[in-house]
């Protein structure tokens, strides 16, 4: 076994052990970043999108300069080029040239169309909503099919590059990537793609039963989609990615009624498939911890954004693995001494018993999301101090 293969296996074992609440040799440290790697490496988004070797160079430079046990991803996760043939891109570049911003285009602005969505969500989405959203799908058959063909080619290339990046990361740097697929919870699917934030906020008050019924139908489609992920069934590593957006804006009562039934339906199905999940509990979830404690034990790694991670360790840390502890605002403004003292406090409270991964509280996207020297210093400190 080569030294890199040994290093890769040691890093994966560290993650797997802590995710089962077994103390590894030390606290794992995760690099939680996406397009930040481009800004750090001074490689523009457009250049990386048009030359995959430059994208590999950008993400590789981060691995050469920082110490991690795993990374969130090995390449960019925004397949922006698949939208160009369809006539409407859902992303726009920021002025810095490195960061992409999502543009919200709700497919279903009219709530009266819930009935069509509920009746047959797949056909309604494919035949009406996507055509409405993408102008080039409204043209003649020849132009429409050409647009779909070009979009599909770009999508296949993107997925090929994602897996190529994962392999390069492992083979060249001995660095595992945490994710091997993703999905969005049913109500978040309604929020993100169908109704938008304003629409779903109104629906929660004016037509909650429609949300419940539509989300249940979308749950069935998601389960069929996930059931095709045979490569990660029964695997301890890597994980299925689940970003969770809307619950931080919901009361516990709203969450239980509107979000939880379809969410749990998918979770139970994924659990039966023996697939593990890493989810991002966006915002603050403290008011929803009773539901987190109903997740199947040791199935989830939960990234915490605005929660008090030390309090979370006590309240949900026996059931799920928690990840976080490095506040990005503090990383930018505080001194190294202050940051190391805080990291020491977090490790002292959260490390015992396993079930803890040290990382930033937000996914790094823009070039100035963190102070580079502070980021490196805190990572290095935890790798030394966090030994069991």
SSE order and pairing:
Blueprint: H1 3-19, E1 30-31, H2 36-41, H3 45-50, H4 52-65, E2 70-71, E3 91-93, E4 100-102, H5 114-119, H6 121-133, H7 141-173, E5 179-182, H8 186-206, H9 208-227, E6 239-244, H10 252-272, E7 277-281, H11 289-292, E8 300-304, H12 309-316, E9 321-326, H13 328-333, H14 336-350, E10 356-360, H15 372-385
Parallel strand pairs: 1-2, 5-6, 6-7, 7-8, 8-9, 9-10
Antiparallel strand pairs: 3-4
For the termini, the CA-CA separation is 26 Å
Could you give a short account of the major beta sheet?
A: 6 strands, parallel
Sheet/helix structural class:
alpha/beta
What is the strand arrangement across the widest sheet? 5-6-7-8-9-10
Radius of gyration: 21 Å
Describe this structure in a few short sentences:
With 388 residues, the protein is of the alpha/beta class. Helix content is 53%, strand content 11%. The protein has 15 helices and ten strands.
Keywords for this entry:
388 residues; alpha/beta; six-stranded parallel β-sheet; two-stranded parallel sheet
Describe this entry's structure for a reader:
The protein has helices spanning 3-19, 36-41, 45-50, 52-65, 114-119, 121-133, 141-173, 186-206, 208-227, 252-272, 289-292, 309-316, 328-333, 336-350, 372-385, and strands at 30-31, 70-71, 91-93, 100-102, 179-182, 239-244, 277-281, 300-304, 321-326, 356-360. By secondary structure, it is of the alpha/beta class.
């Amino acid at each position: 076994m080569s030294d890199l293969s040994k290093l890769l296996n040691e890093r994966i074992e560290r993650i797997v052990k802590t995710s089962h609440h077994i103390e590894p040799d030390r606290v794992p440290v995760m690099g939680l970043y996406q397009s930040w790697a481009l800004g750090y490496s001074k490689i523009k988004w457009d250049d990386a999108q048009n030359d995959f070797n430059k994208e590999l160079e950008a993400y590789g430079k981060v691995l050469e300069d920082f110490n991690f046990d795993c990374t969130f991803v090995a390449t960019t996760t925004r397949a922006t080029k698949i939208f160009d043939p369809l006539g409407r891109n859902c992303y726009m570049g920021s002025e810095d040239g490195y960061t992409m911003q999502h543009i919200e285009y709700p497919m279903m602005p009219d709530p009266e169309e819930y009935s069509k969505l509920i009746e047959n969500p797949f056909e309604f989405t494919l035949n009406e909503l996507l055509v409405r959203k993408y102008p080039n799908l409204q043209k003649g058959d020849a132009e429409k099919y050409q647009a779909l063909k070009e979009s599909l080619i770009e999508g296949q290339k993107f997925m090929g590059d994602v897996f190529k990046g994962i392999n390069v990361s492992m083979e060249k740097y001995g660095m595992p990537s945490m994710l091997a697929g993703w999905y969005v919870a049913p109500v978040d699917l309604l929020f993100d793609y169908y109704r938008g934030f304003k629409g779903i906020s109104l629906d929660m008050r004016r037509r909650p039963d429609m949300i419940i019924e539509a989300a249940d139908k979308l749950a069935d489609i998601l389960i069929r989609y996930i059931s095709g992920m045979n490569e990660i069934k029964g695997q301890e590593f890597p994980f299925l990615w689940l970003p969770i957006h809307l619950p931080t804006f919901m009361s516990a009562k709203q969450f239980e009624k509107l979000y939880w039934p379809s969410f749990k339906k998918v979770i139970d199905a994924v659990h039966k498939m023996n697939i593990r999940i890493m989810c991002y509990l966006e915002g603050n979830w403290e008011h929803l911890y009773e539901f987190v404690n109903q997740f199947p034990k040791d199935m989830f790694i939960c990234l915490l954004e605005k929660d008090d991670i030390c309090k979370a360790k006590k309240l949900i840390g026996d059931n799920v693995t928690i990840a976080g502890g490095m506040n990005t605002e503090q990383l930018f403004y505080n001194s190294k001494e202050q940051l190391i003292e805080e990291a020491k406090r977090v490790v002292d409270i959260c490390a015992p018993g396993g079930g803890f991964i040290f990382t930033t509280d937000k996914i790094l996207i823009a070039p100035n999301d963190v102070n580079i020297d502070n980021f490196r210093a805190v990572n290095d400190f935890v790798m030394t101090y966090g030994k069991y």
